[in-house]
Amino acid sequence: MDLSVVIPVYNEEESLPLLHETLRAALKGIKREWEVIYVDDGSSDKSIEVLGKIASEDSKHVCVVQFRRNFGQTTAIAAGIDHARGDIIVFLDADLQNDPADIPMILEKLDEGYDVVSGWRKDREDNALTRNLPSHMANWLISQVTGVHLHDYGCTLKAYRREALTGFRLYGEMHRFIPVYANAVGAKIIEVPVRHHARKFGKSKYGLERTIKVVLDLIAVQFLTRYANKPIYLFGGGGMLLIALSLMTMLALTIRRAIDGTGITTSPIFIIAVMVAVMGLQSVLMGLIAELLVRTYHESQAKPTYTVRRLIRAGKEAKKK
């Protein structure tokens, strides 16, 4: 299988027939073996019945995964990855706002040597205040914090080589951070403008409360991509900073005593300095414990701490996935 298209579905019974028809038309001309993985995320409408009909009519290309309950978009995407057989995996929304006709163009970009092609809804057909503005702010924040500069992290339409999706699991709202994980293993990323349409059926499943989840997941992603293999750098660095601050405070108290005779231990600042020093020591010890956990994680499961793009041996070159 060359291509797998993963589509999370939640209460999209009206959109699904037109979506599949449009998808078939878009993929009909590509010279690749393809499949579509529909993941029903516990829909409460008739989406699963519609998907069952689509699967029976197009059994060659369609696979349907039905959850027992609603787990969220990130989990649906993770399930799609697990069940996909393609060397290339494309994510697509089920609400018809992403355009399947953009998929061939995205595949052409992958053929140019990129590992990740991320869609950018340059002319977005959503509410400017409740959807577009928070999205612009979130994209700017994620780009600044992670160093992976994309205009549209929230666009589901993205394509990945399978090797760029290995080595991590998705939780919370972390599907939007997959390019960050891919960048951490050296993937080549490009962003391309894609079409975006106004919603034809139903209503959006997301509100402003999602922004808080994104910020919290951003903190987790930063830790996992920067410090997962060397947590002592984070905990130990913070601890050493606190200890240094405490020592500087002690020195200031000592100088003040030499100048005007004020007692060191009688000052409330002394108690604060001692507490800060203890916090710093605890942070260093937490870093050491985290280091032991990381080594246990890698060594007990024989997980490598590196990724290989290609191997050259005895004059021969082979890609490593």
Write the layout of secondary structure elements.
Blueprint: E1 3-9, H1 16-27, E2 34-40, H2 47-57, E3 62-66, H3 73-83, E4 88-91, H4 103-111, E5 116-120, H5 128-146, E6 158-161, H6 178-184, E7 189-193, H7 210-226, H8 232-260, H9 268-300, E8 310-313, E9 316-319
Parallel strand pairs: 1-2, 1-4, 2-3, 5-7
Antiparallel strand pairs: 4-6, 5-6, 8-9
Helix pairs in contact: 5-7, 8-9
In what order do the strands lie side by side in the largest sheet? 3-2-1-4-6-5-7
Looking at CATH, which topology of the largest domain would you report?
Spore Coat Polysaccharide Biosynthesis Protein SpsA, Chain A
Order of helices and strands: EHEHEHEHEHEHEHHHEE
Number of helical elements: 9
Specify the structural class.
alpha/beta
Q: What top-tier CATH class of the largest domain fits best?
A: Alpha Beta
Count of DSSP strands = 9
CATH homology superfamily of the largest domain: Spore Coat Polysaccharide Biosynthesis Protein SpsA, Chain A
Biggest β-sheet strands, sense, barrel: 7 strands, mixed
Q: How much strand? A: 5-15%
Mean pLDDT, rounded to whole units?
A: 87
Low-confidence stretches: none
Shape: elongated
Helix content: 40-55%
Structural domains: how many: 2
* Spatial separation of the terminal alpha carbons: 16 Å
So, CATH architecture of the largest domain?
Answer: Alpha-Beta Complex
The value of Rg in angstroms is: 25 Å
